[in-house]
Amino acid sequence: MSREDYEIVIGLEVHSELSTKTKIFCSCPTEFGGEPNTHCCPVCMAMPGTLPVLNEKVVEYAIKAGLATNCEIADISKNDRKNYFYPDLPKAYQISQYDMPLCEHGYVEIEVDGEKKKIGLTRIHIEEDAGKLNHDDYGRGSLVDLNRAGVPLIEIVSEPDLRSSEEVDLYLKKLKSILEYIEVSDCKMQEGSLRADVNVSVRKKGQKEFGTRTEMKNMNSFRSIVRAIDYEAERQIEILEDGGKIDQETLRWDDVSGKTFPMRDKEDAQDYRYFPDPDLVTIRISEEMKENIRKSLPEMPESRKKRYIEEYNLPEYDSNILISSKYFSDLFEGATKVCNNPKAVSNWIMTDIIKELNEKELEPSDIPFTAEQLGNLVVLIDKGTISSSIAKKVLQEMFENPREPQKIIEEKGWVQISDEGAIKEVVLKVLEANPQSIADYKAGKDKALGFLVGQAMKETRGKANPQMLNKMFLEELKK
Amino acid sequence: MVVSREEILHIAKLADLNIKDEEIDEYAKNLQDILNFVDILNSVDTENVEESIGIANNTNVFRKDEIKEFGNRDILLQNAPEQEDGMFKIPKVI
Q: Looking at the domain that runs over B1-44, which CATH code has it been given?
């Protein structure tokens, strides 16, 4: 038997921090960072006698996420305590939801090799985040910072519908994009506002029952999730091929070695003893509330894509890239409003902007300039004020030190030379210096013209209007 | 349902309690009493009673999403057996 005879089955538990201003059960700020234990109060520090009060926005955001992922929204829901000991969990229980989550039975659609595939969502529930442990290098102890304790999370649990690490990657990107569109989470993996635990099992193709699964934690980028799945599936197949058996256990992914390690003693089977939190009351969601939240949902990516193709005549390929992130999509729409040249804006996003983001290892949400500024850049090109090669330099400036493109070209003296006299001067100078090219051109080598234009561009440091240069060279060469 | 010694040991472990061998039977009996009591509740006819969650009758007690900073870390940390850099210092956790 070989790897091809096996099917990988994957289910995900995605935790996403909600972008509310305050924590789930107290009024402390949720802002990332800050001096240790300064975003804390007696409630999130679990002082005796304190009582949690649920943040209404958390309920609203979770329902929003549920509606955007085709879930059924519960009429009645409640909070439960999940009991376990760990120093980052001050109450020694996490307030979560057990048997009555806010949202159930949804799905997210992904496109695998051009075919649509629905990934089922078991549930979405609300819960609180834990604090953070810092370890000092000398091994004398651990330090507890509870700034993150009580930050609201939604946990999105998928059905075991995913069949490869590629599908997982597509699913996560889709989920991230949905959460960004509905503006309930920042989805910044490096700040931990989007995390995923991954359940992996393998089975022989055609086999009905699932294999024994393992759960992996500690992956901090989409890339490490993909790597971890590939590694773990391979590990399981090898064990089975050697006649072994998979242990159901929780594994920790180590990004440096690229391997998984057992996280806790297998003897300690998880037993969370969930029970309803007596400090909190029942959540009742009226039809009216659901309807109001439904109405507040923004236009979703699929609908935007349709509009881009129909209204702006963009190719499907462009549209897919633009809607892949709310930030691209908003940038595109905002800039197009200014310059009325959708294809040009789309090209700038798909090529130079994405290239710049990749090089700088930035996310679309980190784009520092506004949509209006990008629109104005395209206007400057369309008006012939700057050439597209200068525009590339302006865009880089906009990344470094964002300001109006008009201001940048004035400061840098990058305005395109479109003055006929000035162009002619350059053309004559270049011709005089390159008699061989003139001879080549006259001998039928058209490439010589390109060389001459290039020389003139060099001479003017990219500022000459290329159409005018071309035209004038042709005129002179014909003489 | 009968509470076994193994169950007592399991529950003690989950609750992070050290109990002595001679205490096990005592705890088993106590827990058994509680379970028996709950069994009585189970025998009540609830045919026409509406299902409820918890004992509070009210629902939807919410808070507005408005920041109120507590703003006094020293008070929060004052009872910590040990602290360092504004954090609780605890035995090393891997």
A: 1.10.20.60
